Amino acid sequence: MNQERIYQVLLAPHISEKSALLADKADQYVFRVAADATKPEIKAAVEQLFDVKVKSVNVINIRGKQKFFRGRPGRRNGVRKAIVRLMPGQEIDVIGAE
Asked: Do 61 and 80 form a contact (C-beta atoms < 8 A)?
């Protein structure tokens, strides 16, 4: 996988209370990924960027909420997230503060 595609696949880490608990207890990390990203691409991107071994990848598609904008119905953009489980003993510093 070329370097340009790696940066297109992984958009950003998804930081939330639930993702922090997953990272602490289960060695799982959550990333926002491109809509056309596949599990093998996500696995390869995480392994190359963070120099870790990935055990499994689960992908979630979240539809955007329906909202009203100035009285007219509209829809927010959907999000695709990947939950990446690492091999035991592996760790990613997604926040960058050590």
From this structure: yes
pLDDT tens over the chain, length 98 residues: 788 888 899 999 999 999 999 988 998 999 999 999 999 999 999 999 999 999 999 999 999 999 999 999 999 999 999 999 999 988 888 766 44
Q: Is residue 98 part of a domain?
A: no
Residue 96 placed within a domain = no
Instruction: Kindly report the CATH number assigned to the domain that includes residue 40.
Output: 3.30.70.330
Task: Fill in the DSSP letter of residue 78.
Answer: P
The residue segments making up the domain with residue 57 are 3-86
DSSP H helices in 10-98: 17-26, 39-50
Which residue carries 């958009």 as its tokens? 11
Domain count, the chain: 1
State phi, psi for 36 to the nearest 5 degrees: -100, 10
Predicted structure pTM score:
0.86
